Amino acid sequence: xxxxxxxxVHILGIETSCDxxxxxxxxxxxxxxxxxxxxxxxxxxxxxxxxxxxxxRKHLEMLNPIIDEAMAKANLAYExxxxxxxxxxxxxxxxLLMGLGSAKVISYVKDLPLVGVNHLEGHIYANLxxxxxxxxxxxxxxxxxxxxxxxxxxxxxxYEVLGQTLDDAxxxxxxxxxxxxxxxxPGGPIIDQMAKxxxxxxxxxxxxxxxxxxxxxxxxxxxxxxxxxxxxLNLDARELPLHDLAASFQAAxxxxxxxxxxxxxxxxDVKTIVLAGGVAAxxxxxxxxxxxxxxxxxxLYYPHAxxxxxxxxxxxxxxxxxxxxxxxxxxxxxxxPNLKLG
Length: 342
Ligand code: KG4
Ligand code: ZN
What we know:
- The mean pLDDT is 96.
- This protein has twelve helices and ten strands.
- It has 342 residues and is an alpha/beta fold.
- It has two domains: 10-126 and 311-324, Nucleotidyltransferase, domain 5 (2-Layer Sandwich); 135-303, Nucleotidyltransferase, domain 5, CATH 3.30.420.
- β9, α10 (283-295) and β10 form a beta-alpha-beta unit.
């Protein structure tokens, strides 16, 4: 079990790695006292994806009001906090810089320890809110807009990356396909919804790297297949079977994710599987993972949808463990856009 000595520790978490500005106060790494997330989606939507300059500017505008709101909702003074935890990477450098700058100011002015958190470990730790007794070791499938990887977590702060995408992240593939089909941004929730009325067996899209024997992924071939399929239909002036296409696209991804996640658990002789990241909110992936893990006698965990997508709760939870371990970053610390796990 992940140990949780109850110490009445309050951590303010700050998240700005991508396009959500988040601040949250969490007690003892489990109890959410307050959480505020400002999404920038509407500002990026018309560009069909995230524009880094806009992201930085919006973080700058939103950080102070969001942090104030989180503190007010928590009904706490800065003096009641034990530390400030902030995402230091991976992510967009300008976006990370905004959150880190705010956290440094609070740390300096209020004389609070500054804790740096890896955004990806944050995604895994989001699970502790819904599953406080989560058992270690575990294998986590992290599927987000920027990452797709299988991670073996032996202990807190001890990660081994077992495999990852060689090209696009799963969330990125969802977003690109949705943009191509003119469905909107972000594509994940839209395709998730459309697929509910479609047949996952309708179109035989490729299951990339299914038979390679390793734990890596590739999404670019699937993306090309979808584009080719749609182009041919357009040439023949045939109507797009959007629901079947969405369902078949998801099925091609889920087949590989489920197979490789189970393989990773077997390789590591681990019984606990944890889903993390924005795509872990996907209803079809969850269903397929539930079935797949049940057949193999594995225990599956995933957080509520609002804890899957970027938020500051997960940063405060991971920050709590780093705080207890004595991990600190200095006021001279810089963001690390390509920060690795493990
Ligand atoms: O974890 P996240 O909020 O940000 C990153 O760290 O990247 O993940 C965002 C990604 C986006 O690509 C979005 O389309 C995807 O998660 N996503 C989903 C769903 N909800 C969000 N993908 C599939 N199904 C969903 N329900
Ligand atoms: Zn994320």
